[in-house]
Design a protein that fits this description.
The complex is a heterodimer of chains A (181) and B (487).
Chain A (H helix, E strand, L loop, with lengths): L4 H9 L6 H17 L5 H18 L9 H27 L5 H4 L8 H8 L3 H12 L4 H8 L3 H30 L1
Helix pairs in contact in A: 2-3, 2-4, 2-7, 3-4, 6-9, 7-9, 8-9
Chain B lengths: L2 H12 L5 H13 L1 H25 L4 H17 L16 H21 L10 H8 L3 E13 L8 E11 L3 E9 L5 E9 L4 E6 L4 E6 L2 H10 L3 H10 L2 E9 L2 E8 L11 E9 L5 E11 L4 E13 L18 E2 L5 E2 L5 H15 L8 H6 L1 H6 L3 H10 L4 H27 L5 E2 L12 E6 L5 E5 L4 E4 L1 H9 L8
Parallel strand pairs in B: 6-12, 6-13
Antiparallel strand pairs in B: 1-2, 1-11, 2-3, 3-4, 4-5, 5-6, 7-8, 8-9, 9-10, 10-11, 14-15, 15-16, 16-17
Helix pairs in contact in B: 1-2, 1-3, 2-3, 5-13, 6-8, 9-13
Classes of the chains: A mainly alpha (181), B alpha+beta (487).
Bound molecules: zinc ion.
């Protein structure tokens, strides 16, 4: 898993479609993290993540800059998420089902919705790095290498993202306690 | 260290990215500064929260479902037949000549399939070959632009595009989808299936709702089982030719190494001026692209230029074997009344083919390159030989299928000659053919020769008898040949 995206994309185009698996492994977490902020439950996110990766595979020839794979993939997933939500909404209207999504959620997953919400509100450049670092479990060095930016830029950006997250989290905490009080 | 300096380093610290010196200074500051200490705790808590949440979401294995979905979607794509465009669907093969031309194209496709990649088993040097042998099924694209100049038959487009997709699974066979611009600007889609196990080759034209079955000989079926028209043969044939390394380059971001050959024996069946470049991935040693550039003369007044590119190689394509066993829809009709038998390609059948050509054309073919013989096929029908007249008489009033069958049967033996000669050329058996200077009324002159074991030569004389001769005897035989007019 130490090869660059560009390397794996080259392999995919050059007769080794199976190597796409490495890109799936690398980005599935980050992609899920991204999609959790776009759709209303984990199952839909998973469905969207899968479909986005499949589409990315078939569109890989159109990707001009292989080192921008992640951003490109997120772009694809945004469209997939939109489509999915639209279909699901129509489905729900048809079935006249109104269930609170969070109630329908599998209880076994302890979801940190507050954090998720805070992450989804981050500006893109901060959010992408958070996704790669904590959802795709890449090290700061790997991120720097992958995105071809200095390590210092990665840590500065993440540090700033922490500051923004803390701000949002403190605010929502305050709001909650106000509501409670 | 003051608080600002400390703040700047805190994130790097929790990520384990600061050096020992900074770490010591930072720890020292934190021990004395409550603000920074509580900030550190906050950051660490957030880090834990992010890590846990991230890990929770990452508890997902998309690899298998994604690859599975890709395989399913790919299968559908492979199965999908290019939809026929309605405005192009019109009856073809009105006249015997058009029909002949199309039949010739069909056979050409088959013979090309046989000869173009049928290298010998001898050399397997490069690791390129080894790498390819490890892959299960391959897919590649081949695009050709065929430009003809000079005296073209009416309705023949000077430029034709042929786009093919070729899928090969060594154990099952080959599927080739070909789209070509045809006579009178018609597009023709042709699917070819090669099933060596069933000794069968199947050709389907979805636009016309036609199909044709060809029976392979044991020889061909065996050859296919071994070689299966696959790109490995292309590499092997390449390695058999004189080639040179031409250095590194980049193709779609991939570092490649180039090999070039101008050895005409590469394209045995096609003959003519040849310039082939093969690009191999420097890292994986697998082919990335092949550029083909071939010039060939098709008689005094016509030349054909083929520019082709093989690309988009995929080496580990998951395949469903049903792809190789097409179901022919009920409303499709067979082009020929019974399966066409492909000829054996031996000395004997080569002689039969020469005899056949002579009977119909009244002379021997000027040369034995596939294109040239094919382009001369029309002449066979038009000549005034008894055989030609008899054929024309016999196909009058026949239904289309029987007519096609009759003409295919007439042409097949000639294909055997062409195929046999092409193989001799590819196997570097030092073949030569003198049909351009030797006529049937000079029975003692040598018409064709090739090398056999122990440096001996096999010779076919103009009376179509064959003999084995020594190189000395061959030199004598060739010294009495008439001079070419051009020389
Ligand atoms: Zn301080």
């Amino acid at each position: 898993m130490t090869e660059t995206d560009t390397f794996y994309i080259g392999r995919c185009k050059n007769g080794h479609p199976d190597d796409f698996r490495f890109l799936v492994k690398r980005y599935q977490g980050a992609l899920m993290g991204h999609l959790m902020g776009r759709v209303d439950n984990r199952d839909t996110a998973e469905e969207a993540a899968q479909e986005s990766l499949v589409r990315a595979y078939f569109k890989i020839d159109t990707l001009k800059k292989p080192d921008r794979f992640f951003t490109w993939l997120l772009g694809i997933s945004d469209r997939v998420a939109l489509e999915l939500c639209r279909t699901k909404r129509v489905q729900k209207q048809r079935e006249h089902i109104r269930i609170e999504v969070q109630q329908a959620e599998e209880p076994s997953f302890s979801q940190d919705y507050v954090l998720e919400e805070a992450v989804s509100r981050l500006p893109d450049n901060y959010r992408h790095l958070i996704l790669l670092r904590y959802y795709s479990q890449m090290s700061c060095r790997q991120i720097a290498e992958q995105l071809q930016i200095p390590l210092g830029t990665v840590t500065k950006t993440l540090s700033r993202a922490y500051a923004l997250l803390r701000q949002t989290l403190t605010q929502s905490q305050t709001n909650e306690s106000e509501v409670a009080g | 260290m003051n608080c600002t300096q400390c703040n700047d380093l805190l994130f790097d610290y929790i990520e384990g990215l600061i050096n020992d010196q900074d770490k010591h200074a930072l720890k020292a500051h934190i021990r004395t500064c409550d603000t920074c200490q509580s900030l550190l705790k906050d950051l660490q808590a957030l880090q834990t929260r992010l890590t846990e949440h991230g890990q929770n979401l990452a508890q997902i294995e998309l690899e298998i479902p994604v690859l599975g979905a890709i395989v399913r979607r790919q299968k559908q794509q492979l199965k999908a037949i290019t939809p026929p465009s309605p405005q192009l669907r019109r009856p073809i093969m009105k006249s015997p000549i058009t029909k002949l031309a199309i039949a010739a194209m069909v056979i050409m496709g088959c013979v090309l399939g046989i000869t173009m990649w049928s290298g010998t088993q001898s050399i397997a040097l490069a690791d390129v070959l080894t790498r390819m042998e490890q892959a299960r099924a391959y897919l590649y694209k081949m695009n050709m632009t065929i430009t003809q100049t000079g005296d073209l038959p009416a309705g023949y487009p000077p430029t034709q595009e042929v786009e093919s997709t070729i899928l090969i699974a060594p154990e099952y066979g080959m599927k080739m989808t070909m789209k070509m611009g045809m006579i009178a600007n018609q597009t023709m889609v042709q699917e070819q299936y090669l099933q060596p196990q069933n000794k069968r080759m199947l050709m389907i034209m979805p636009d016309q709702k036609k199909y044709m079955e060809m029976e392979l000989t044991d020889q061909l079926a065996d050859q296919y089982k071994k070689q299966n028209n696959d790109p490995r043969m292309m590499i092997e044939t390449f390695l058999n030719c004189d080639y040179e390394k031409i250095g590194r380059s980049k193709i779609t971001g991939i570092q490649v190494e180039g090999f070039r050959t101008t050895d005409p024996s590469f394209s045995g069946a096609l003959g003519g001026k040849t310039n082939i470049t093969l690009w191999v991935d420097s890292r994986t040693r697998l082919p990335v692209q092949m550029d083909m550039d071939m010039d060939m003369s098709m008689g005094a007044e016509r030349t054909m230029h083929i520019k082709g590119i093989m690309t988009d190689f995929q080496w580990d394509v998951p395949v469903d074997t049903s792809v190789f066993e097409p179901v022919i829809p009920d409303d499709y009709t067979s082009l020929a009344s019974s399966p066409i038998k492909m000829p054996e390609m031996t000395e004997e059948t080569a002689i039969v083919g020469l005899k056949q050509y002579l009977d119909y054309a009244g002379q021997y073919p000027e040369d034995l390159s596939l294109m040239r013989v094919m382009s001369g096929m029309g002449k066979l029908m038009d000549s005034n030989t008894p055989a030609s007249k008899a054929l024309k008489q016999s196909i009058k009033g026949l239904n289309q299928n029987d007519m096609t069958k009759a003409m295919m049967d007439m042409m097949m033996p000639i294909q055997a000659t062409v195929g046999f000669y092409a193989r001799l050329a590819q196997e570097k058996k030092d073949p030569a053919y003198y049909g351009d200077i030797v006529t049937p009324d000079q029975p003692d002159l040598i018409l064709m020769r090739w090398q056999i074991e122990d440096g001996q030569y096999r010779v076919i004389f103009s009376d179509l008898t064959a003999e084995t001769v020594t190189p000395q005897q061959l030199t004598e035989l060739e010294s009495v040949l008439p001079q070419k007019e051009s020389e």
